[in-house]
Design brief:
A hairpin with a 2-residue loop joins strand 1 (about 30-35) and strand 2. The strands form three sheets. A two-stranded antiparallel sheet has the order 1-2. The protein has a two-stranded antiparallel ribbon with strand order 3-4. It has a two-stranded antiparallel sheet with strand order 5-6. It is globular. By secondary structure, it is α+β, with helices and mostly antiparallel strands. The longest helix has 16 residues, at about 5-20. It has helices spanning about 5-20, 45-50, 75-80, 85, 95-100, 125-130, 135-145; strands at about 30-35, 35, 55-65, 65-70, 110-115, 115-120.
């Protein structure tokens, strides 16, 4: 089989374009909006105030590839003393989505603490679905995490 000049040039240009295309980046380990974990919500407040509270850049800390904002220096210091105790499961991605094998964003209002661990969901409606089988959804999510980041 012989190639004409046009076909050979097309193959060469196509190969060069593929080589120049960056590999698909893995999903970051923490759900972050412009590098800010959880869109700036103070993760410690879920445990201490039983509600989402907006954090402040003045009380921030870097952990696990993202910047975390806290409502107070005390909350920041509490987090830094044991980040895994306060960081949400599945990096703050939607617990329902992770249980189904993918990632999705979350909203501050759709949350739940189960056995001392924080889970967030895409919306209040999705959280309602997730609540129908919390133990089953957590088991599925744990089995899928962190593989869904690839």
């Amino acid at each position: 089989m012989t190639l004409n000049r046009r076909a050979a040039l097309s193959l060469t240009l196509g190969a060069a374009a593929l080589a120049a295309t960056p590999a698909r980046a893995a999903t970051p380990p923490v759900y972050a909006v412009r590098g800010i974990a959880l869109g700036g919500t103070d993760t410690v407040a879920y445990f201490t105030e039983s509600r989402p509270i907006a954090g402040k850049a003045a009380h921030s800390a870097d952990w696990n590839g993202a910047t975390w904002h806290f409502a107070s220096a005390e909350n920041r210091d509490t987090f830094l003393a044991d980040p895994t105790a306060f960081a949400p499961q599945y990096g703050g991605y939607c617990a329902w989505a992770v249980s189904r094998g993918y990632t999705a964003s979350t909203v501050p209002e759709a949350w739940e603490i189960v056995d001392g661990k924080l889970y967030r969901n895409f919306s209040l409606g999705v959280r309602s679905r997730w609540r129908r089988d919390i133990p089953g959804n957590i088991a599925k999510g744990d089995a899928n995490w962190p593989g869904v980041l690839a």
